[in-house]
Design goal:
The chain has 282 residues and is mainly α. The protein has 2 domains: 13-100, Orthogonal Bundle (DNA polymerase, domain 1), CATH 1.10.150; 127-275, Intergrase catalytic core (hpI Integrase, Chain A, Orthogonal Bundle). It is built from 11 helices and 3 strands, in the order H-H-H-H-H-H-H-E-E-E-H-H-H-H. It has helices at 13-28, 34-53, 64-76, 81-100, 127-134, 141-156, 160-164, 194-208, 228-241, 250-265, 268-275, and strands spanning 171-172, 177-181, 187-191. A 3-stranded antiparallel sheet has the order 1-2-3, with no helix packed on it. Helix 6 packs across helix 10. The longest helix is centred in the first third of the chain and has 20 residues, at 34-53. The radius of gyration is 29 Å and the shape is elongated. Residues 1-12 have low confidence and may be disordered.
Length: 282
């Protein structure tokens, strides 16, 4: 009578066993903390599960293409770049261990990087919120300056550093344009709306009354140029003062400018040029 053959091993067992061996080594030989070992276990279990879904049944089949595909798959699932990077780190430790044990030859994780982390864009203000923010009563010189500043942010979509560096010689009142020196010292020309121009003119009259009229557009009452942090504080102050239900940042006004222009025109390329960006995702 012919003897029965042994059952076929679980296809995922090679990768699962390698992960189990590494985790035991990490715990016993490397003296890693329980929290670190638990994190490695979760990440390696996810990789083993993905391999099973892809019918990758042995360690030799885990190559650079497979690891890149795994990272891309995690990204499509909505896993954050930081979490993907952590999983890749666990795989680097695993395959470093396997190479030292001479169980694999190559390094399938070499040169694999997680997608770049991009912080979420701020939620744009709606039109009513913008109007409420800009409706500043010009009861003193600072209020006049700050209204001109906020009008410029929303009218031209400037970065806070760009607005801080603006000088009067870059503003063409007749044409309603301003030349902006952006990132990489690249210059672009952007339009300035009539409300912003009127607010700037009111502020300029105050500046001209000073003994020495400054070249910078936005200055303190003593004539020194406002820095980025000072501008951020003034924007936050007026968002509170004007009764908005959130603390507004300059970049939020820039994003609101872009969103409202895009909604009204649908011209993505024009918005990109106005912002001085290669794409809107940044």
């Amino acid at each position: 009578m012919k003897a029965e053959s042994a059952p076929e091993p679980d296809p995922a067992s090679a990768i699962d066993q390698a992960a189990a061996d590494f985790l035991a080594h990490a715990r016993d030989e490397l003296d890693l903390s329980p929290a670190t070992c638990s994190a490695y276990r979760r990440d390696l279990e996810r990789f083993a599960s993905w391999c099973a879904e892809q019918d990758i049944t042995c360690l030799d089949a885990v190559d650079n293409v497979a690891v890149r595909s795994f990272a891309a798959s995690e990204h499509r699932r909505g896993i954050s770049p930081r979490s993907i990077q952590r999983r890749l780190s666990a795989l680097r430790r695993l395959f470093g261990y396997l190479r030292r044990e001479q169980r694999v030859k190559g390094d399938p994780v070499a040169d694999v990087r997680a997608p770049r982390y991009r912080p979420p864009l701020p939620r744009p203000l709606d039109v009513d919120q913008v109007l409420a923010l800009l409706d500043i009563p010009e009861e003193d010189e600072l209020a006049t300056r700050d209204r001109a500043m906020l009008e410029m942010f929303y009218a031209s979509g400037l970065r806070v550093s760009e607005l801080a560096g603006l000088t009067w010689d870059r503003l063409d009142v007749q044409q309603g344009l301003v030349r902006v020196l952006g990132k990489g010292r690249k210059e672009r020309v952007v339009p300035v709306g009539r409300h912003a121009l009127a607010a700037l003119e009111r502020w300029r009259r105050i500046q001209m009354a000073q003994a020495t009229a400054p070249t910078r557009i936005f200055t303190s009452l003593k004539g020194g140029g406002l820095g980025v942090r000072a501008i951020q504080k003034r924007v936050a102050y007026w968002s509170d003062r004007q009764g908005l239900d959130q603390r507004v940042h300059p970049h939020q006004l820039r994003h609101s400018f872009a969103s409202h222009i895009l909604e009204s025109s649908g011209d993505l390329r024009a918005v990109q040029e106005l912002l001085g960006h290669a794409n809107l995702s940044t």
